[in-house]
């Protein structure tokens, strides 16, 4: 769970752009319910800040100090009225203790997948339920694995290096190229991602390399539905994308669940 609290926290915004349409989707759901909103795994504020800019009160929670430091730096540069709508809290989604309830809880960009065991997933969902108003919504997305592609040994899995991103290092202004490998453990339902950040000089020579591992656990559709129901959350909708398209295996799971009264 302490992933991204490392040197790559400074690179997070360059490689984690979100899923197309996700922020607009979350804002649309918030407009229906109103605030306050709790975002779990808020990271550097990619979703939290637009929520506040849309005039909604939001609490952002994350357990990675390096990510929260970046978020606080961003928030400090916002207009005073927007800053006043944001509260940033260090904490663990498995054991939230805010002493208040929310109209909506968000867990964007697959942050739920950092929970590596069923026990941790249940703890987080029960904690979410305890912090939702009756009828309040939990909205989140998780990756749905393309099992046929994995079994066939697609380029998305295995030891092959794939070019993920390229950006200018904010401190050195040198070009940084990001490579990654992905390995899927079908028995454990875990994808192990290994990233290599190569900082190049003006001649294209690698002057620095940073290696970072990342593990995420996926959940299958009916496994996820069962977990939600066990934890007092009723499924309102399951979409396959942020355009509210139908769920199709191997793409995305976008869940909207309501706190049972």
Summarize the structure in short.
It contains 8 helices and 11 strands. The chain has helices at residues 12-15, 22-33, 48-53, 65-76, 80-83, 118-130, 147-151, 221-230; strands at residues 37-40, 58-62, 86-90, 102-107, 132-143, 158-168, 175-185, 190-200, 206-217, 233-239, 252-259. It is globular, with a radius of gyration of 19 Å.
CATH superfamily of the largest domain: Vaccinia Virus protein VP39
Widest sheet: strand order? Answer: 3-2-1-4-5-11-10
- Helix-strand category: alpha/beta
**Major beta sheet summary:** 7 strands, mixed
Q: Helix tally?
A: 8
Helix content range: 25-40%
Number of strands: 11
Provide the low-confidence segments as ranges: none
Element order: H for helix, E for strand: HHEHEHHEEHEHEEEEHEE
Distance between the termini: 31 Å
Question: And the CATH topology of the largest domain?
Answer: Rossmann fold
Query: What's the average pLDDT?
Result: 93
Which geometry do the CA atoms define? globular
Percentage of residues in DSSP E strands:
35-45%
Task: Write structural notes for this entry.
This protein is of the alpha/beta class and 261 residues long. The chain folds into 2 domains: 178 residues, 3-Layer(aba) Sandwich (Rossmann fold), CATH 3.40.50; 71 residues, N-terminal domain of TfIIb (Single Sheet), CATH 2.20.25. The chain contains 8 helices and 11 strands. The strands form 2 sheets. Strands 3-2-1-4-5-11-10 form a 7-stranded mixed β-sheet, sandwiched between helices. A hairpin with a 4-residue loop joins strand 7 and strand 8. The two termini are 31 Å apart.
């Amino acid at each position: 769970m302490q992933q991204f609290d490392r040197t790559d926290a400074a690179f997070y915004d360059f490689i984690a752009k979100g899923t197309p349409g996700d922020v607009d989707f979350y804002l649309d759901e918030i407009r229906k319910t109103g605030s306050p909103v709790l975002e779990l795994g808020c990271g550097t504020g990619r979703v939290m800040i637009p929520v506040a800019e849309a005039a909604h009160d939001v609490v952002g929670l994350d357990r990675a100090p390096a990510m929260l430091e970046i978020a606080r730096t961003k928030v400090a540069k916002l207009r005073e009225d927007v800053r006043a709508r944001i509260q940033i809290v260090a904490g663990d989604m498995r054991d939230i203790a805010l002493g208040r309830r929310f109209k909506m809880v968000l867990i964007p960009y697959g942050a739920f997948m950092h929970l590596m065991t069923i026990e941790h997933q249940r703890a987080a969902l029960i904690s979410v339920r305890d912090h939702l108003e009756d009828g309040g919504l939990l909205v989140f997305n998780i990756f749905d694995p393309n099992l046929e592609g994995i079994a066939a040994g697609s380029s998305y899995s295995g030891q092959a290096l794939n070019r993920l991103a390229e950006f200018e290092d904010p401190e050195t202004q040198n070009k940084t190229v990001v490579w990654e490998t992905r390995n899927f453990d079908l028995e454990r339902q875990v994808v192990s991602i290994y990233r290599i950040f190569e900082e190049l000089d003006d001649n294209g020579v690698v002057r620095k390399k940073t290696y970072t591992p990342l593990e995420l656990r996926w959940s299958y559709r009916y496994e996820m539905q069962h977990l939600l129901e066990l934890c007092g959350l009723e499924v309102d909708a399951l979409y396959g994308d942020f355009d509210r398209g139908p769920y199709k295996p191997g793409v995305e799971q976008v869940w909207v669940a309501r706190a049972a009264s």
